[in-house]
Design goal:
Layout (H helix, E strand, L loop, with lengths): L4 H11 L3 H7 L21 H10 L2 E8 L13 E7 L6 E2 L2 E9 L7 E9 L4 E5 L7 E3 L5 H13 L2 H13 L4 H16 L3 H4 L4 H4 L5 H4 L4 H14 L3 E3 L5 E3 L6 H21 L7
Antiparallel strand pairs: 1-2, 2-4, 3-4, 4-5, 5-6, 5-7, 8-9
Amino acid sequence: MACPGFLRRDVMSMMMLNDDHLRRAAPAVFAQAPHDAVSERYGFVPTIQVVNALRDEGWYPVRAQQTNCRDLERVGVARHMIRFRQDPDRQMAVGDSVAELVLTNSHDRSSAYQLDLGLFRLICLNGMVTPVGETGGIRVRHGKNVVDEILEGSVALVGHVPNIQTAMETFRSLSVDRGEAELFAASALELRYGDDWQRQAPIKPENLLEARRREDAQDQTLWGAFNKAQENLLKGGIRGRSRSGRRTRTRPIHSVTEDVRLNRALWRLTERFAKLKGADLAA
């Protein structure tokens, strides 16, 4: 059941980040100049300028994070990510989720501006990144036209929301047995820990399928397997054992780069599983 409109507006107002919130979570958003190592051809446009342009178009920052840096000189220019959502009266529902825009950038040569389409799952307050097309999103090189290109990209990405809705409905229509779900989880662990995941991962595939809420425990579909694996990998905290046999818990993903990479890869993995089960995901 959807939340009443007034309640959704109150929740949204509490979640919207003002500039003070952004500065604490991701100081590089307010960089005044790029890192000294960038070339003279680098066209510097501070991220806050893009943020304000998206705000003017009705997209509001609701989450921000920044890559931890040991090099203090890079703290003010390091890679950062901001998730945007529309106000409740305009939000595009996608099943049990709402559409978001996910902006990543840095001013130290580690990345260009990247804009992706994302989903925010309401039941678990969990954010995803959904690839669009072969490249996964809109990539914009640093230059004087960044703001215009990002705004054009946001319109293009929003046009793909119906395709994401169709994919989600397909995932939800596909039942998976225990063996199939564990095969999916094993593939997800390989995405996270690499080819040698059986030695490197502190947990087994069945652990990755542990449900954090009753609704997910009862979901025996491909969408359910994806959600459990995605949330457990991103949030961590799953009990397991290290290679030495010591009891441990999996670590949450804090890296901006790994967050986006793993989210994209998990969505692609789910698409491949759906196709193996005979689904047609053609746009």
